[in-house]
Amino acid sequence: MFKTAPLSSSFALVAILGFLITFIYTIYGRINATWGFAVGLVFILMFVASMVSAFHAPIEQQEEADHILFAREQKAEDKLVRTPKPKSK
C-alpha cells in the first residue's frame, strides 16, 4: 500500500477556490482553454489528495499537523504583538 501524509483543511479550501476561479476565468475568456484545463486539473488533483488524506491518514497525525500549524500561527502573531511602537515627538 502507500502511506498518506496528513494535509490541513486549508489545502482542500485552496484546491476548491483555485478550481472555481480557474473555471470562471476560463469561461469568460481571461485565460486560454488549454491553460484553464491544465490549471484546473492541478486543483482537482490537489482536492483528490486532500480527500485521500482525510480518509486514510491516522487521526493522531492529523491532530499533530494541525497543532504544528496553530503553533506557527501563534508564534507569528506573538512577534507582531511584541514589536515596540515608535516613539512620537
**How many domains make up the 3D coordinates?**
1
Summarize the main sheet: none
Give, in order, the helices and strands.
HHH
Helix content: over 70%
β-sheet strand percentage: under 5%
Distance between the termini: 67 Å
What's the β-strand tally? 0
Low-confidence stretches: none
Indicate the radius of gyration in whole angstroms: 19 Å
How many alpha or pi helices? 3
What average pLDDT do the residues reach?
83
Structural summary, described in words:
By secondary structure, the chain is an all-alpha fold. The chain has one domain (9-81). The protein has three helices and no strands. It has helices at residues 9-27, 33-56, 59-81. 3% of the residues are buried. The mean pLDDT is 83.
Structure described in brief:
The chain is an all-alpha fold and 89 residues long.
Layout of SSEs?
Layout (H helix, E strand, L loop, with lengths): L8 H19 L5 H24 L2 H23 L8
Main traits of this protein?
74% helix, 89 residues, mainly alpha, 0% strand
